[in-house]
Specification:
This protein is of the alpha+beta class and 874 residues long. It folds into four domains: 49 residues, no CATH class; 223 residues, no CATH class; 303 residues, no CATH class; 176 residues, no CATH class. Helices cover 50% and strands 16% of the residues. The strands form three sheets. Strands 1, 2, 3, 4, 5, 6, 7, 8, 9, 10, 11, 12 and 13 form a 13-stranded mixed sheet that branches. Strands 16, 17, 18, 19, 20, 21, 22 and 23 form an eight-stranded mixed sheet that branches. Strands 15-24-14-25 form a four-stranded antiparallel sheet. α5 crosses α16. The relative contact order is 0.10. GO terms for molecular function: transmembrane transporter activity.
Amino acid sequence: MNQRHPTPPKLFLRFFRWFCHPGMLDYIEGDLIEVYERNFKTFGKRKADWRFIKDVLLLFRPGIIRPRKPYQNLTPYGMYKSYFKIGWRTLLRNKEYTLINIAGLALSITCCILIFVLVKHHTGFDDFHQDKDRIYRVVTEQHRESVSYVNSVPSPLGMVLRENHTYGEKVARMFHEANTVISFERNGEKQLIKEPQGFAFTEPEFFDIFNFPLSKGNMKTALKEPNTAIITERLAKKYFGEQNPIGQVITYDNFLPFTITGVLEDLPPNTDISPEIFVSYSSMKDFNPWLASDDAWGGITGGMYCFTKLRSGVSPAEVEEALQPYVKLHRPESKNVHHYKLQALSDVHFDGRYGGAMDKSDIGILIAIGIFLLLTACVNFVNLATAQALKRSKEVGVRKVLGSFRSQLFWQFIFETAIIAIVSILIALVAAFALVPYVNDFFSTQIPVNFLTDGTLVLFIIGLDILITLLAGCYPAFILTGFKPVAALKGKLSMQQLGGFNTRRSLIVMQFAISQVLIIGVIVIMNQMRFAREAELGFDKESIVMVRMGSDSLNTMQTLKNEFLRVPGIEKVSLCFAAPASAGSWNNSIRFGTDTEEVSFRTNMKLADADYLSTFDLELVAGRNLTPSDTVREVVVNEALLQNLGFTSYEDALGEMIYANGGEMTGPIVGVVENFHDRSFHEGISAALITTASNMYFNYAIKINGNSVKATLAEIETLWEEQYPDKMFEYEFVDESIAQFYEAEDTLLKGIQFFSFIAIFIGCLGLYGLISFMISQKTKEVGIRKVMGGGVTHIIWLFGQEFVRLIIIAFLIAAPIGWWFMNQWLQDFEFKITLDAWTFAMAIGSSIIITALTVGYQVFKVAYLNPVISLKTE
């Protein structure tokens, strides 16, 4: 006889489902119904019903069936306190897991905090000035055969903008002279001090534009009279101690005195206005009469700035259009067409074209590195948390059976993540506080260390804590709370329920990809810097020292040159304007032969005596060297100049006339030298002209025997001080000055190296924790394989093949990303390396070696473990 499908009494079943916890329901109901079905078949419906009722009622005795909301009487405080206690105890029980996560997060958060304060410091430059949105610097675009950018302007431009136009509420000119020697008297003794930031000839309106208040003196009259000066409080104390600096006299280079009429409050660290001595602009006529004149439109001298605060409603485009006619008005014959542009104050610090201290792309790189480090640490956390899922599955099953809802368990795991994040942040704050002085030295910044008083930083840290907790905690909490209690307690969870190998593989691939992108960046920048330092420059830069000369006659300079040549360690000496490659240069427009118009390209003027070529080992490819002369009589040019003029045979150019500096410098071409790099590798080789002009000699170029550098320098200093007893001895090696071309790249390289090491170290922590889990899960399997004849190599490959596959997949992702980023970075160099296969092979090879070192010990340990011990492992 067909019986209908057996069902328990509906009333008791509904009661059971209503009263019991969901977790208990999953765990018990199936067994009760199974027993009911057996009883139904054996005893019939009536007896089966009574037995079911009896079984349900018996469950009350041990307290298995309890109210659905066991925490309903707890206050929110009690609930969170319970979460905290349980989380803290769980973390203490799993010390290795906890320490790995805290170490990784603390390292990444430390770097994020340091990057944040560094970015905040740079983005806050000159943002403290009133009406900063209306303050602009006038700059120049020079259009020749190509466009070049200069942060200076002709000195009369500021006067024209102020007197002929009403766009500017205030207009001020400033001429900055760096690396100056200042002398003064203290306690009756003359003191000489070199000021790297120098001083600035400044119009009084400058202090109406910028917010640099005086602590002593009257701003309206301080710089009104000639030969007056304002200095900062720091310099006032440095020069005069506790004496009143007002009325004291400081002297520039022993010939230009200034009376101090005011003292500025110390300049804040986040300003691009660097001089701490401001002198009256009306004194410029004694320093440089040509620069001070109202007709100095013929060229642009570096350091000649013009600032303006525009009236409300005036746009920069209006001012740029109004200034454009002055180019043709004052320089009608020049092929060097100037375009005067207004640069917003907020862009001054970041526009590398005009000498900005930090390019915006560098800020982007720092932010990207911070994000990479944070992602790497969070990936570690997720990997380890999901790997621990099997160990905690029974805990989840028991909690669900005892009445915990999924939401309660979810917040329990989130609280555990929050505890780790908070502890990591506290460690990171201490570490960042200790590292700020080193960061300041490294990046040449003055970042304050008042972390707790910086509201923006506090908000950043709070936001970082919330982000890490959610980013690292949500997915593991979602996985761990999703277990079915029956499967969890019976140990029947699948790998997909534990987070899945594919999920962990994806996260490991992400870590490897981030690390490989950083490794590619380090390799490319290192190779480019090595190329820049070791490549042939076209001249000798080794063991050549540039000694700044005093302002004397040619006879005096020639006499001292001859004295230098008598020193045993000195091989050659030349009087010159500058070395072949130097930061300071004089670019001029020239006329060639019978042409009536100037050429369209700029020419780098190298003023030097006849020993210049031999001192720097410049190679002649045609013609001869210059004959000794005090004035311009002959010229030697480089190959680039003749190539720009269209010559294919250099011999054909010999004897042709060159007219430079508006025709004031004239001479025939008598020689041609090989091209030499006159600037950094960021720029191409300029057309260059070498000629004699004694009134433009500012340095002695001295070639020293490399075996006696120290003793020879001491002899040079002695001779120099005998000639110039009241001047400071200054020198610089040519190779060191060339290295300064790449200071920004060196800093970037060191920064990426450091952060790459941190990212790789964090990744290694994660790999160490993950391999520990994998080995604990496969120990018995390893024992079985060894018993069945598997060798050590087979066991090692069992673990190694997984990581090798992941490294290769990560490389396929990282290689195009790294290539694109570094190819973009190299575009800033005119002379650069090529991105070859070895660069990427080194990246993937480094990843394999690092991974092998990280997991190797534990893999070898389990591979050589006695299989008897492995098989006994639970």
